[in-house]
Design a protein that fits this description.
Length: 137
């Protein structure tokens, strides 16, 4: 029987769609061609999380507001979970090697560990691991 799973689609305005697609695929994510074209790319982060990278003119068709320059204005903080501290470091270090910039300080609280980076367009991504033993039902 089909069970509905709620998804999140994070829509991000980008300056160079091809460069952003390359950045995210080199981080290990895939592009869903069914929902991608010259104006947007559907980056599959997980089975319930998708980042929609949109050219600024296309993004502008969805809002009457001014599009934030994510390099100078905080528009959103995107947080992704990771399965271990090592996976946090792997993803952030890979992003930095691909042209991302560090964002904020490393957070190490023992039971929770996180690092962050700004992608090619300045969007802030936090990658966080939390000890499963500390998560209570």
């Amino acid at each position: 029987m089909y069970q509905y799973r709620q998804m999140i689609f994070v829509n991000l305005a980008v300056n160079d769609l091809d460069a952003s697609k390359k950045f995210f695929t080199e981080l290990g994510y895939t592009i869903n061609p069914q929902f991608s074209d010259d104006n947007a790319a559907s980056v599959v982060i997980s089975d319930t999380i998708v980042a929609m990278l949109m050219t600024k003119p296309f993004y502008a068709t969805f809002t009457k507001k001014e599009i934030a320059d994510a390099r100078t204005t905080s528009e959103v903080l995107i947080a992704l979970s990771a399965e271990s501290r090592e996976k946090v470091d792997e993803l952030v270090d890979r992003a930095l090697s691909l042209g991302a910039t560090p964002s904020g300080e490393t957070q190490d609280h023992g039971f929770m560990y996180g690092r962050s980076f700004d992608d090619l367009d300045g969007h802030s991504w936090e990658v966080v691991w939390m000890d499963p033993a500390m998560v209570r039902d």
